[in-house]
Amino acid sequence: MKIDPNIQFPIDPQSDRVTNSAGKTVPSQGSTSSSGTSSANGEDTFNLSSTHSQVQTLTASLANVPEVRTQRVSALQQKVNSGNYLPNSQNIADAILADQAGRRA
Question: Cα–Cα distance between 46 and 38 in angstroms, integer?
Answer without folding.
Answer: 8
